[in-house]
Task: inverse folding
């Protein structure tokens, strides 16, 4: 009887391996039967170490200042890349799109959130927000988080705005004409987003929707970074089969 040859493992280099997300990712990749951790690198380690390790995939969990350079290096060398670093604005994504035209076989996933539950909650909120005149977002995180609003909230606001525009729903009613201290929060794609930073929290988001006589709240809670690891592994397992740039883990889920 002929044995079926074992599949070649996904050879992963983790950038930002010593960070909180990085440490969880290293453990998850190490225990995944179809993956091999070939490099644990910091934000300042030479990028050539990725090539020296023989990686086929890069997981970038660094900081916004160096992430674009890391991804550009990986794309230039034909490496599939999964990105969990924040700060990927539309301008940065457009630059990356241009880079990918020269490497049409390379896949890149930029995921504002790796929690499958959070991605599903945002997708559901975008769907039902078409049916309510008012919608706002409250995102709540630990006080060590450096960016506000969160990438997840920005992504959720964008999905909601697109869905409401397609359905012909106007802006949320708001009679506020004076707000010198910004009490109404940030405005992302026309959606008000309020950021809370509080010790004891991890990552939490509420999408509040209101209509005459009723309110619907879609909430997701992540209590530790282990919640993100199934999404990280899903991204690494899928990215090679999705050439080009995918923004959001929902692009790898069957969400229409």
Result:
């Amino acid at each position: 009887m002929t044995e079926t040859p074992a599949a070649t493992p996904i050879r992963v280099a983790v950038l930002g391996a010593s960070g909180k997300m990085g440490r969880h990712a290293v453990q998850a990749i190490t225990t995944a039967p179809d993956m091999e951790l070939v490099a644990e690198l910091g934000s300042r380690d030479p990028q050539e170490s990725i090539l020296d390790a023989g990686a086929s995939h890069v997981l970038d969990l660094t900081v916004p200042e160096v992430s674009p350079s890391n991804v550009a290096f990986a794309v230039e060398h034909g490496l599939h890349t999964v990105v969990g670093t924040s700060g990927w604005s539309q301008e940065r994504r457009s630059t990356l799109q241009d880079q990918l035209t020269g490497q049409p076989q390379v896949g890149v996933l930029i995921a504002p959130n790796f929690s499958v539950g959070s991605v599903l909650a945002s997708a559901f909120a975008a769907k039902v927000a078409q049916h309510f005149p008012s919608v706002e977002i409250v995102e709540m995180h630990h006080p060590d988080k450096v960016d506000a609003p969160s990438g997840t909230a920005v992504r959720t606001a964008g999905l909601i705005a697109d869905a409401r525009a397609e359905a012909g729903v106007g802006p949320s009613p708001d009679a506020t004409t004076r707000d010198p201290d910004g009490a109404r929060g940030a405005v992302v794609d026309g959606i008000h987003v309020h950021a809370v930073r509080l010790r004891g929290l991890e990552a939490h988001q509420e999408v509040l929707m209101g209509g005459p006589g009723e309110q619907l709240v879609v909430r997701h809670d992540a209590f530790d970074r282990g919640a993100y690891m199934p999404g990280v592994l899903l991204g690494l397992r899928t990215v090679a089969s999705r050439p080009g740039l995918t923004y959001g883990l929902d692009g790898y889920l069957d969400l229409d």
Notes: Residues 1-5 have pLDDT under 50 and may be disordered. The first strand starts at residue 10 and ends at 15. The domain at 116-174+184-223 is CATH 3.30.360.10 (Dihydrodipicolinate Reductase; domain 2).
